[in-house]
């Protein structure tokens, strides 16, 4: 692991040998496509940590998003263990590192929170839950990510939901914020529907609220949330490659996260596709940092 200033100043270990409830880590690289450059995502975790720095001394203050302090009056229970030593173009090794670390965190009865990286890194993250299923996946994204392969690569950033659908421990998938055009063709949409994916467009959420999405998840489910930054509207998340008008607001996203924690139990969370060269004034990193704060706060509040 690389040395780093932890998210919100969190240490890599809790004092006195206490076991953390939440373990945050970065995964800069996943499975790249031949001829593409994924290096623009590699600094996302670093930028998000930096964006959280000025709030590091405020974790005991009242957070109006959470209706209380981050740790709800209890001792801090989150650690940030830094970035995994992933390497560009080392696809199989990167996947193995991510899956192994996810399994290790879950085996210690903690909740893994991962910062990517492009949208290929959720595939091994999901795979790491195979001994902790069944899980439901709540995807927040502009795209359905159901391609079987691109340029012969089956584990790239256009395929995470297709690969997740093939995992025996994944009980169901809800895809929220879908809009505009991407790599999906009619055949990918048909494949997603055959599987039984619940696709909830951004227009549906804007018209009917988050209930349009959360109603598809069974009560009491273990939920892994995967958030592609382009699921949010570019007015609050400009640091993406595929800026697409009509996305979810920050408030809708944190309401979805809260609703998931009440509907069932957040078992894991990942945030991907923050393209730091495309950010404007650090807005995207700040928004991502606030989303992570809400994730941590909601996990802490789960009974």
TrEMBL record:
Q: Which UniProt keywords apply?
A: Hydrolase, Metal-binding
Molecular function as annotated in GO: agmatinase activity; metal ion binding
Kindly give the InterPro entries that the UniProt entry links to this protein.
Ureohydrolase, Ureohydrolase_dom_sf
Has the keyword Hydrolase been applied to this entry? yes
PROSITE patterns registered for this protein in UniProt: ARGINASE_2 (PS51409)
Keyword flag GTP-binding: no
Query: What is any Pfam family matched here?
Result: Arginase
Q: Which domain of life is it from?
A: Bacteria
UniProt GO BP: putrescine biosynthetic process from arginine, via agmatine
Q: Which family would the database say this protein is a member of?
A: Belongs to the arginase family.
Entry protein name: Agmatinase
Where does this protein come from, organism-wise? Mesorhizobium qingshengii
């Amino acid at each position: 692991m690389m040395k780093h200033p932890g998210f919100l100043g969190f240490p890599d270990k809790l004092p006195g040998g206490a076991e953390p409830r939440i373990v945050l880590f970065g995964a800069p690289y996943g499975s790249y496509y031949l001829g593409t450059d994924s290096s623009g995502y590699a600094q996302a975790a670093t930028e998000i940590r930096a964006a959280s720095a000025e709030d590091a001394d405020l974790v005991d203050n009242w957070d109006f998003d959470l209706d209380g302090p981050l740790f709800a009056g209890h001792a801090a229970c989150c650690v940030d263990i830094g970035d995994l030593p992933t390497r560009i173009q080392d696809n199989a090794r990167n996947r193995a590192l991510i899956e192994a670390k996810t399994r290790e965190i879950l085996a210690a009865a903690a909740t893994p929170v991962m910062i990517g990286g492009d949208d290929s890194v959720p595939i091994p993250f999901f795979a790491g839950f195979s001994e902790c299923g069944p899980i439901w996946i709540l995807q927040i994204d502009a795209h359905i990510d159901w391609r079987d392969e691109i340029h012969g690569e089956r584990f790239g950033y256009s395929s995470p939901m297709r690969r997740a659908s093939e995992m025996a421990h994944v009980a169901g998938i809800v895809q929220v914020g879908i809009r505009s055009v991407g790599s999906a063709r009619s055949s990918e949409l048909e494949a997603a529907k055959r599987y039984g994916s619940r696709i909830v467009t951004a227009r549906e959420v804007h018209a009917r609220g988050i209930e349009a999405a959360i109603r598809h998840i069974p009560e009491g489910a273990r939920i892994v949330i995967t958030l592609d930054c382009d699921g949010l509207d570019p007015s609050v998340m400009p640091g993406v490659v595929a800026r697409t008008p009509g996305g979810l607001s920050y408030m809708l996203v944190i309401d979805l996260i809260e609703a998931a924690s009440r509907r069932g139990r957040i078992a894991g969370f990942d945030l991907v596709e923050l393209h730091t060269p495309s950010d404007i004034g650090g807005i995207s990193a700040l928004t991502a940092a606030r989303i992570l704060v809400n994730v941590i706060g909601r996990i802490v509040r789960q009974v």
